[in-house]
Structure formats: structure tokens, C-alpha cells
Amino acid sequence: MTIPKTTAVIGAGTMGPGIAATLSRCGSNVRLNDVDSAVLERSKAATELASQVLGRLDAPEAPGGSVSFELDLEKACAGADLVIEAVPEKLALKREIFARFEQAVAADTILATNTSGIPISDIAAELAHPERVIGMHWSNPPHLIPMIEVVPGEKTSAAVVEQLVATIKAFGFEPVVEKEVPGFVENRILYAILRECVSLVERGVVTQADMDTAVKWGIGYKLAVIGPMRLLDMAGLDIYQSVGSYLNRDLCNDAEVSSFITDKTAAGKLGMKSLGGMYDYADQDDVNANRARIAAGLVAVRKTLSAL
Ligand SMILES: NC(=O)c1ccc[n+]([C@@H]2O[C@H](COP(=O)([O-])OP(=O)(O)OC[C@H]3O[C@@H](n4cnc5c(N)ncnc54)[C@H](O)[C@@H]3O)[C@@H](O)[C@H]2O)c1
User: Fold this and answer.
1) Separation of CA 11 and ligand 1 centre (Å)
2) Which residues partner with 133 through β-bridges?
């Protein structure tokens, strides 16, 4: 299997539609499933939108793919070569539906989870065939960020890792194979950065708007082109050693999430979804305009980076 002939994507919320669009564009017949019929109905437009964005990107394409929408999980899984689970981040729920997958698919079907950090071994713990269960962590928006973390659990077979890596390459994304650590690699880095950013804004060292400017241009722009390991080479390891020797001990290492954040969440200020968080949004149109600007920026940057 490189591009799976049939893929079941379970969960049609934030992540499912972009995942479905990516695979169908490369020739897979995708069945997108959700337990909620209203969500499944809404996911049709989201899948179409993601497909259009992939078209604007000139993303890799192969004929024969499709997306169908299926309320029944067992029907969605029947005959699938690959199942990708994208239901809410709750261990009990994931365990329950993986047990249902086992009953619904062939013995060699790969069962992948898009969990953001639940250990794969915990999801697979009660299954008869944990060797075919694997983490496949897409980044949001999934059709736009062409990197997927591949996380084998304790019992995942090497053959399953190899097959999933080949599949991800076949649809034009870059797989990153990792050992199982809490949060996986991407979120560990992101949360280390976010903790320091929140701390500096909370202490009044910099305004939040200036923080966004500093990180976007001073860090994001550079790292998008070269990555942190090559950045070390560019800066000089001796420089990192001398700066790190006094700076590391001054960096935020709080174990708890700052009250700067928890006070806002307690007050219902959750970000774009509640029209206010770190910034305020006038109305839903304002949120939509911000989201559109971000999506357009990601498309433009991805095109440029892909050409390098
Ligand atoms: N949102 C992100 O930025 C992001 C990024 C990477 C990974 N993830 C991970 O992906 C997974 C899904 O996240 P999301 O943000 O898409 O969640 P979401 O809440 O937007 O969507 C999940 C969907 O699953 C459906 N669902 C619940 N129980 C189900 C069942 N038994 N059968 C079928 N469908 C069911 C829900 O109705 C919902 O529509 C989570 O594990 C999350 O941690 C999310």
C-alpha cells in the first residue's frame, strides 16, 4: 500500500475534512464519518474548501479519488486499507472506537490515530492487534501543513511504520518518525515557546503585539527556512554554549499554566471561538477575515518554501 485504495477518516470536526481532502486528491476513496449528522453535513463544505485550497497550491494529484460521507462507523471502515481516527482527545472514547475498528476491518488494515499526545500504547493497550496501531499526527490545518509526525507505540510493528511513511511520502507530505514522548515533538517545541512568550508578556517585558512581531520575523521567518539544528550551525555552537550558559537558567520553567491564561479561560475568553482571547474580535466576520488572511499567508509561504 502506498496510496490506500480506501481510507476511513473517523471524526469530521476540525481535522477530518482537511485529512479527507488531502487523501482523496491523491487517488484514495475516502469515507468521512462522524457520529453527529449535523457535523457530517457541515463537513461537506469544509472538505470542498480544503480541496480548493489544495488546488491553489498545485498539491500532488492522482486520479480516481473521492470523498463520501457516512454516518455509520462500521460501514465507513468496511474494506478500508487505512483508518485515521480524528475524534476528540479522550482516551476512553479512542479505546472504544479502536475496539470497534478491530471488528470492522481486515487483519492487515493500519489503524492510525491523530491524537495530539495520548500515548499510542495506551490507545492500543486492550486490542488484539496492537502491532497495527500507530500515531499519525497531522498539524492544523491538516491539508496545508505538509508534515506528519509518525509515532509508533511499544507494540507497533516496523512494517506498519514503513508502510505509513511510504503512504505519507506518496501523497507529498514529509513524515517525521519519533519515539513516544508526551506531546510528541512538535507540541513540545511549541509549548516551550508559548510558555516563554506568555511569561514575557505577563511580566510586561514586551506588549503582546510586539511579541507577535518579534517571533514572526525574528524566529518564525528564519526557522521556516532552515530549522533549529541548522540554525545552530549558522549561529555557531560556541555562541549557543556561551549564551545558553547564562540564559537557560533565566527562562520560564513554570510547571503550571500561568494565571495570565487561566484567568481569561475562566472568564470565557477563549480566543477566536469566543470573539476574544489575547485580542478582541468585533464579530464573526472579523474572525473569518483573520482566518482567511492566515490561510492565504500559509498558502503563499508553503508555495515559496516548497520551491526552495
Ligand atoms: N484541532 C487541532 O488543531 C488538532 C491538531 C492536531 C491533532 N488534533 C487531534 O485530532 C483529534 C480530533 O481533533 P479535532 O480538533 O478535529 O476535534 P473536533 O472536536 O473538532 O472533531 C471531532 C469530531 O469527532 C466526532 N466524534 C465524536 N465521537 C465520535 C464517534 N464515536 N464516532 C465518530 N465521530 C465521533 C465529533 O462529533 C466531532 O465532530 C484529537 O485527538 C485532537 O487532539 C487536533
Assistant:
1) 5
2) 111
Neighbours of 100 (CB within 10 A): 13
Distance of alpha carbon 141 from alpha carbon 100, whole angstroms: 27
> What pLDDT score does 116 carry?
92
Q: Residues with beta carbon inside 6 Å of ligand 1?
A: 10-16, 33-36, 39, 73, 86-89, 93, 97, 114-116, 137-138, 140
pLDDT tens-digit map of 229-267: 999 999 999 999 999 999 999 999 999 999 999 999 999
Give 172-185 pLDDT, tens digit per residue: 999 999 999 999 99
Predicted local distance difference test score (pLDDT) of residue 1: 64
Ligand 1 center–CA 3 separation, angstroms: 23
Residue nearest (by alpha carbon) to ligand 1 atom 38? 13
DSSP states along 192-231: HHHHHHHHHHHTTSS-HHHHHHHHIIIIIHHHHHHHHHHH
Whether 307 shows a pLDDT value over 90: the answer reads: no
Whether the CB-CB separation of 64 and 39 falls below 8 Å is answered with: no
DSSP 45-95: HHHHHHHHHHHHTT----TT-EEEEES-HHHHHTT-SEEEE---S-HHHHH
Q: Which domains does the chain have, with CATH numbers?
A: 6-177 (3.40.50.720), 185-306 (1.10.1040.10)
What tens digit of pLDDT does each residue of 31-50 get?
999 999 999 999 999 999 99
Which of 159-163, 172-176, 300-304 is the least confident region? 300-304
